[in-house]
Amino acid sequence: MIERRRNPRINVTLHLSISDLYRQDPALADLKNLDSPIQIIDISLSGIAFITECVLPIGYFFDAALENPAHKNKVFTGVKIIRSDAVDHNRYLYGCEFTHQPDNLQALLDEMAKSISE
User: Fold this and answer.
1) Does position 94 have pLDDT exceeding 90, yes or no?
2) By C-alpha distance, which of 38, 92, 28, 26 is closest to 64?
3) Would residue 4 count as lying in a domain?
4) SS3 105
5) What's the whole-model pTM score?
6) Which contacts qualify for 32-36: CB closer than 8 Å, 24 or more apart?
7) In whole angstroms, how large is the CA radius of gyration of the chain?
8) How many domains, in total, are found in the chain?
9) Strand, helix or coil at 114?
10) Long-range contacts of 34-40 (CB under 8 A, 24+ apart)
11) pLDDT tier at 67, thresholds 50, 70, 90
């Protein structure tokens, strides 16, 4: 199969926390209290895929904190939800793109790729 992604994906174990979910349309109410566990599937410079029990609407944005549990390095970035699929009756797979790439995102990905290859 030909890889069509802009950036290669890395299968990782990271902690992802969502602070607030919002849409750029100010007429729509923001969603709060997004405390469901999140399982990250993979990550690249372009975006992230994860599974959660939380129902998140496509087209919404959230501020994310990505943390490498081995090193406690945190990356703060904005994320837009672009795709959603049901995994089972109460879990959903989301595909998201980063709305901006902080300088330390590449360092985090390099660190994760290095730990996988060791």
Assistant:
1) yes
2) 38
3) no
4) helix
5) 0.75
6) 34/62
7) 14
8) 1
9) helix
10) 34/62, 40/12, 40/13, 40/14, 40/16
11) confident
DSSP category for residue 88: E
For position 27, what pLDDT does the model report? 46
Q: Are 108 and 76 in contact (CB under 8 A)?
A: no
User: Range of 89's domain?
Assistant: 10-117
104 domain residue, yes or no: yes
The number of residues in the chain equals: 118
Phi and psi torsions of 110, nearest 5°: -60, -40
Considering only residues 2 and 87, tell me which one the structure prediction assigns the higher pLDDT. 87
For the domain that residue 14 is a member of, what is the CATH number?
2.40.10.220
Is residue 30 situated within a structural domain? Answer: yes
15/50: higher pLDDT: 50
Please indicate, yes or no, if residue 111 is contained in any of the structural domains.
yes
**For residue 28, pLDDT beyond 60:** no
**Of residues 38, 13, 1, the one with CA closest to residue 113:** 13
CA–CA distance, 52 with 21 (Å, rounded to integer): 14
User: Is residue 88's pLDDT more than 70?
Assistant: yes
